[in-house]
Amino acid sequence: MLVYLRLLKESFGFAMNALRNNKLRTLLSLLGVTIGIFSIIAVLAAVDSLDKKIKKDLSSLDKNTIYLMRFSFGPSEIPQWKREQFPDVKYDEYEYLKNSMNDLDQMGFQLFVKSESIKYQSASVSDVNIVPVSHEFIDIQGLEFEDGRFYNEPESNSGAAVIVLGNEIAQNLFEDSNAIGKDVRLYGQRFLVIGVLKKQGAGMFGDSNDTSVFIPVNFLRRMYGDNNDAMTPVILVKPEKGVDMDAFKAELGQKLRNYRGMKSDEIDNFFINVLSGFTDLIDGIVGQMNVVGWIISGFSLLVGGFGIANIMFVSVKERTNLIGIQKSLGAKNKFILFQFLFEAVILSVIGGAVGLLLVWIISVVLTKALDFEFVLSMGNVFLGTGLAALIGLISGILPAITAAKLDPVEAIRTGM
Questions:
Q1: Spatial separation of the C-alpha atoms in residues 49 and 104, rounded to whole Å
Q2: Which residues touch 231 (CB under 8 Å, ≥6 apart)?
Q3: What is d(CA 209, CA 201) in angstroms, rounded to the nearest whole number?
Q4: CA distance 109 to 112
Q5: In 101-216, which ranges are continuous DSSP H helix?
Q6: Closest by alpha carbon to 350, among 18, 128, 72, 51?
Q7: In 30-144, which ranges are E strands?
């Protein structure tokens, strides 16, 4: 054991000596490993951070939550021209399904609308995400409040002019003063502020409740009616826990078909989008990003491996005389082999460590510059270190074998 520790120490010394004596050559050769490890770990860290953010944003939602609408979350076998003819879901369909569905926890009605500006006295905020939704939304999504409350069922049904503000909107309009009970202007109308949400941070697609406001969906329905092309309705469905999702979706689809008076040979003119299917789609995209990152970074690692091999062949050439002396004094082939293998691994790990350091520095800078947390996990650190060591091991095998097989007499004579 002591022999191998001494061997490791000497190999580390040779590696440091190579860095000191041939700085430019060694640094250029290690650059390939550095870039390769940096590329792979940077991609993995970015994808892991995105995946973590997505899961955090969706944590408040039940993965069995259903979005019933005319559009599909993912690819569909139905031709686009036919999908464009599908009708929007209606408020009366929402009311019918809510009163007739079994195993139902909550059901809400929401409109997707374009952004608007909101004002309070001289203060104004533009590009605000407007969320017109029924009162059940708070139980479906689980909103958290810093102050105030969400609107209740009577306010929702009557389309009362009440509003719940995202944290950032409230800060921009009222700064540090209390927003509850104040009137803001939206759609040219006055709305009474009854709630302010807790700060959430940036969403997975740049959206966030911080930059959103919530109003009763019936307020907009009363203003613009139900046949406005600028509004896309959706029925939000939250089944009871433990329900058979296939049976629930079948019942939901059949009830809507019956309500619309559809014939048995007609295809569904709506889509039952389950949130778990959306998360599976996201997981697939994340997996593909990882694969692409590995492929691109693999070329950099390949170049880095050639660089390490080049250093080691030069090192064998420069130390031929020393190898001959070591073997003449009784050093075994295994000793010479491990000496060069250790040196190759150490050089490669140094290059990998620089790559990991660059990833860490960039992740810290981006986390502070953007409202998004980039995370360099210990798993990725160990992966990067292991990959660097493996590249060094593979790249150093051939030079090490070449050194181990040198004839001591020829090695001494060549080195003289």
A1: 34
A2: 111, 112, 113, 132, 220, 224
A3: 8
A4: 10
A5: 137-141, 153-158, 167-174
A6: 18
A7: 66-69, 104-112, 116-120, 123-133
Q: CA 317, CA 326: separation in Å to the nearest integer?
A: 15
What's 405's DSSP letter?
T
- Check: CB of residue 68 under 8 Å from CB of residue 273: yes
Number of neighbouring beta carbons within 10 Å of residue 405? 10
Burial state string for 164-182 with b = 16 or more CB within 10 A and e = fewer than 16: bbbbbbbbbbbeeeebeeb
Q: What is the pLDDT of residues 132-169, one digit of tens each?
A: 999 999 988 878 899 999 999 999 999 999 999 999 99
Residue with tokens 């049904």: 157
Instruction: Return d(Cα 123, Cα 115) in angstroms, integer.
Output: 17
pLDDT in tens, 156-209: 999 999 999 999 999 999 887 888 999 999 998 999 999 999 887 655 444 578
Which tokens belong to 25? 């050559």
Q: Residue with structure tokens 């697939």?
A: 284
CA-nearest of 275, 259, 278 to 98 is 259
- pTM, entire model: 0.61
Distance CA 401, CA 311 (A): 15
| Pick from 408, 414, 412: nearest CA to 327 | 408
360 in Cβ contact with 376 (< 8 Å): yes
